[in-house]
Amino acid sequence: MLSARSRKACTIILSLCAIGYRSSQVSRALLYFIADIAKNHQVRKQYTIQLGENELVLKELELLNENSNVFKLIGPVLVKQDLAEANANVRKRIEYISAELKRLDGTLQDLEDKQNSKKESVSC
Amino acid sequence: MGDGVKGTVTPLGSLFSPEEARKAAQRVEGAVVQRSSELRRLQGFVSENSALISLVRSLPDELSHEIMVPFGGVAFFPGRLIHTNEFLVLLGDGYYAERTAKQTMDILHRRGKAMEAQVEALKATMLDLEAEVKFFNSTAEEAIEGIVEIREEYVEEPEKNSLSSDNSLHSCKTENLQKLDEDEDEEYARIMARIEELERMEELENGNTSEDNTQENEDTVVRDGDGGSKAGDEDEDEDIEAGHSFSTLDHKYEVIEPKQKLKDPLQKASDQKVLSSFISRQTGNISKQQLKEEAFSNSRMQFPVEAHSFSNKELSVGKEKTASSPFDAQSSVSKIEDSPHETTGQTLNIVSRGHKAFSGSIVERDLDPQPVQSSKNTNLSQAFTGSIVECDIKGESWRNGKVVVM
């Protein structure tokens, strides 16, 4: 039911409650921040791994001869692919993942700023 | 450790509480454990990869292999493996490529290399973390033991007091210095005895021509200049033990060598110098008082003690200003003057030949190194900071020919 990420966010919130956070308005917001940041980290890790893998694939594809057969596994099916097409696909995927990572970085930064400002308002 | 030097004593426990240090150590240890499990996983991959490489290498040996083909989850049936040179290699992210055995091996090799790079990086981070853990633990232990951090102001006092203020500079080493002193006294006595023995032996030997000696000395100079580590010399062996307690082994070596080579009539005088320089070098941190007594007793020509105790470059600065310097200089000057004419004559001779006679032991830091170094072998200056005797003030009188420079 729960995805791994949201499960992780919940565990963080629960553990914080165990430490003794009272469920007041402000601290709940803080908890959400912490959970969001944790989620962000998780997604970013995933994307980073994929990016690494795709870069390796691109390197190997470049080493292939023109007439080599390339196949893509789509579900249970191995589909023959054109080498040029495969190259282009992999490159596009790399670009997409890099863009996603950048976006996530921006979001993470926003979340952290908001968290800090909330912390300051709480301490004041 | 002069009187009236301001200082603060702070117990390490107040700066870093031991419990916190231990907690930090535990946290880092947790990270280390995590990394080590990751490392094990990666190493598993590496071994799998190498097994695969050997399999791929062996498959094309036959046209077809008889195997038991897995069928479903729990069944097998006998079959044959054909097209043994064609492999569909997973490149990553769902992409496969048809390759020959050789090409597959290349791909696997590259993969293995990338993984090993990852393993190395992980090991490096683990080492850093472990170093952190050690540091935290040691800090915790020190805090518990009650080690204190002592900070004292460095007061530049002239002459006599400068030695003590120098010691206060290295406040954390004062205890060590004192222990060193005691150890060095014994070693010093031993060394003195040995030196006298050697001197007697050399005197007995026939004096070769001075050129030979100077040649040898020049050789030693050159060698010393190379930063010589002369483990071979037997003389140095016993000095090595002494040397351990002293700051620079190099200096010690250099001192010994000229002593060995010198067979001159000049030898004695030069030996004295070598001796004194050697002594001074050896004694390094030893108090000047002791040096003075022994050095003067043994040599006709005495260099001021300070001149020699420059084994520590840091200390040399202070020593240059030592109070006893004027006293020592004068006494040494008087000694030289008192010595018989032959000696003086010898000294003069030495001066002229002294540059070659000594491979360089003495070298001390001089506030005014220029005039001295011109006369020195440049090789020496590599090992030694300065040149002749310390005491810039007195330097001139030395250079006038009484002092042997080296």
UniProtKB/TrEMBL annotation, chain A:
GO terms for cellular component: cytoplasm; prefoldin complex. InterPro entries: PFD_beta-like, Prefoldin. One of its GO terms (biological process) is response to cold. GO terms for molecular function: protein-folding chaperone binding; unfolded protein binding. It holds the Pfam family Prefoldin_2. Residues 94-121 form a coiled coil. Keywords: Chaperone, Coiled coil. Belongs to the prefoldin subunit beta family. This is Prefoldin subunit 6. It comes from Zingiber officinale (Ginger). The lineage of its organism: Eukaryota, Viridiplantae, Streptophyta, Embryophyta, Tracheophyta.
